[in-house]
Design a protein that fits this description.
Two copies of one chain form a homodimer. The first copy, chain A, is an alpha+beta fold. Chain A has a single domain, classed as Winged helix-like DNA-binding domain superfamily/Winged helix DNA-binding domain (Arc Repressor Mutant, subunit A, Orthogonal Bundle). Chain A is built from five helices and six strands. In chain A, helix 3 packs across helix 4. In chain A, about 30% of the residues are buried. Chain B binds a DNA duplex through helix 4.
DNA sequence: TTGCATGCAAATCCTTTGCATTCCT
DNA sequence: AGGAATGCAAAGGATTTGCATGCAA
């Protein structure tokens, strides 16, 4: 996977939750507000795009903490629903700050050539998930949906870096 | 991930392509028809459910070949579009025999507790993908969509084995 | 003070690869 | 024969974990 180059303007509005609000969530969950945690949340706030653990670790700069700490914290934050994990099929987890409740729920359109990511506002028809859940007797049904294709800049290129 | 227990009846009709037809596809692609390949295709034909490399390897039984060979072949078959890869978010690739053309395209409903998998016939509204592609100037757009929930048998249990 | 978090290093797990050998075509 | 496929072992890369130490509450 290449390094992230330039990011396109987002199609969905940014949720620029203030850092204090984020740390408050930690406090309410009886989690300690440590330097690595604040730094990681800052990074996620700055780049509202799916980032890998390694990318987050790199972006920490002089606030650097151990990579294992990044992994541990993203797991924790995921458990708290403060971040959402995305899977682009290349075997690497990516995270984004999650909006409160369902508000943050969204999907992506990923260029399989340059890995450019577009955030989408579209989602499944509301009743589809519910119908599927009922028909098969499942509860607490959610879904993961991502789109893959070739962006206009990459049209003509023939190699693929994502989804090997 | 637990071992696969009992599988529910499929919601979509099985594509029981005869083995000869599958090996013919290999022949047409100038691929050699080896014992491991036939055995792997046989396994996939028998279990039309997403299987991991390891599960396939196990299911080979006395037709056993090296695990690396399983990996290599599934990659090859994926490239030929003879199998489809699915990703349930637990960091392990799963494969299924693919129907010809788009005919095999489908999604899953996965129980996050027991990993039971239901094959779905539902798919995205046809025009949604096209609209998204056009709006963002992407071509060759495809999607990955999977549903996750808790099946009726597992209601009441509170541990989760999938999507840690 | 007290246990949650962190750093560091080692361990796991999935997947890929190098190389000599085997075997389809 | 000749190149593709396989077996075996080792390497890679992502992620997790054990343990002693540090630090927020």
């Amino acid at each position: 996977m290449k390094t992230c180059c330039d990011h396109p303007p987002h199609s969905r509005r940014l949720i620029q939750t203030p850092l204090v609000e984020l740390t408050d969530q930690l406090r309410r969950s009886a989690r300690k507000i440590t330097a690595p945690r604040q730094a990681i949340l800052e990074v996620l706030r700055r780049h509202q795009h799916p980032l890998t653990n390694k990318e987050i670790h790199l972006a920490l700069g002089k606030e650097e903490c151990d990579l294992a700490t990044v992994y541990r914290n993203l797991r924790t934050l995921e458990g708290m629903r403060m971040v959402a994990r995305f899977d682009f099929g290349d075997g690497v987890a990516r995270y984004e700050l999650a909006g409160a409740g369902d508000e943050g729920h969204h999907h992506h359109l990923v260029c399989t050539h340059c890995t450019r990511v577009v955030e989408l506002t579209e989602c499944l028809p509301r009743q589809m998930e519910q119908e599927i859940a009922e028909r098969h007797g499942f509860s607490q049904v959610t879904h993961r949906l991502e789109f893959f294709g070739v962006c206009n800049r990459c049209r003509g290129s023939h190699t693929t870096s994502l989804v090997k």
